[in-house]
Amino acid sequence: MRIAVLGGCQAHGVAHGLLALLPEAEVESFEAVVIRHHGQEAEVAAALSGYDLVFTQDLDPEFGPLGTAALQAAHPRLRRFPLIAFTGYQPDLVYLKKGGDVRYSPIGAYHSAIVAGAYSLGVPEADVAQLFNRLVYQRLGYFDAFGKARTLLLRMAQESYGLDLTAEFARWHARGCFMHTNNHPKAVALAGMATVLAIAAGLVPEGTPAPELIFDHLAIDTIWPVYPELAEPLGVPGSLLFKRLNRGIGAGANSQIIGLPRLIRESYAMYPDMPPEYFTIEEAGPLREKLAEIL
């Protein structure tokens, strides 16, 4: 059997899980944004017609023949599956963006809402670290984030895709924080998604356990910690150490893992070059307003 998995960066981990479950199958993953960057939408769409089964995350019409509506019309054995997006562990993580323009931080595409908000509100760099405390988290709504995100993810999976992830979610959380960032699941979650999809498609029997994946491919990117005060009630390990996007190891000092003081220092060094409106719009804006009420 030939199986294709199409979607974002999560497609590779889901394909890995399917191959672990079905070692005799040929399983390939296709990352839609990379395909579009190279202008190969039509070529890949034609190639997908040669697969017995195609799993796809939802893609907009801008992806042309790879858009979900177009694929559904062209491929008789197409199965949709959801993006695993979960903000419950890292509610302080935000993008600074305007439309499609995303501004990078010292550790990748992600920023601390507290650090960014403090900068834009004129808080001195030396005073920012003290804002990382239980009272500020409570006022910003961070302690409520896990329950809200869980409800949103499970409801979306059930209502939009007909997938019950309740048991899988509990299994993922029992293993600790299952997200590297809000949109990068760890291997345990992607393996679980692959298992749910394989069972729903009749490829493996009901009750088949999720495999233990050998590689966690998204661990090469940014990893955001669960802050200690937020981790405690969730029963997961907490930290204030941040991991950068993997970069080459040179002859000099290397700092792939950085602490909160360095994140603050390097963020404050970058922010003067950023347009002021990026701190006040989209997802960063509401948290900035709440922070302003605290200060």
Q: What are the main properties of this structure?
A:
single chain; 295 residues; alpha/beta; 2 domains; four-stranded parallel β-sheet; two-stranded antiparallel sheet; 12 strands
How do the helices and strands line up, and which of them pair or pack?
Layout: E1 2-7, H1 10-21, E2 26-31, H2 32-37, H3 41-48, E3 53-56, H4 68-74, E4 78-80, E5 93-94, E6 96-98, E7 101-103, E8 111-112, H5 113-120, H6 134-140, H7 145-161, H8 166-174, E9 179-181, E10 184-185, H9 187-200, H10 228-234, E11 241-243, E12 257-259, H11 260-270, H12 284-294
Parallel strand pairs: 1-2, 1-3, 3-4
Antiparallel strand pairs: 5-8, 6-7, 9-10, 11-12
What would you call the shape? globular
Number of strands: 12
- Strand/helix succession: EHEHHEHEEEEEHHHHEEHHEEHH
Distance between the termini: 60 Å
Number of helices: 12
Number of domain modules: 2
Strand content: 5-15%
Major sheet characteristics: 4 strands, parallel
The averaged pLDDT comes out at: 95
Class derived from helix and strand content = alpha/beta
Low-confidence stretches: none
Strand order of the main beta sheet, please? 2-1-3-4
Helix content: 25-40%
Protein architecture, described:
By secondary structure, the protein is an alpha/beta fold. The protein folds into two domains: 112 residues, Rossmann fold (3-Layer(aba) Sandwich), CATH 3.40.50; 123 residues. The chain is built from twelve helices and twelve strands. Strands 2-1-3-4 form a four-stranded parallel beta sheet, with helices on both faces. Strands 5-8 form a two-stranded antiparallel ribbon. Strands 6-7 form a two-stranded antiparallel sheet. Helix 1 packs across helix 9 and helix 5 packs across helix 12. The chain is globular, with a radius of gyration of 20 Å.
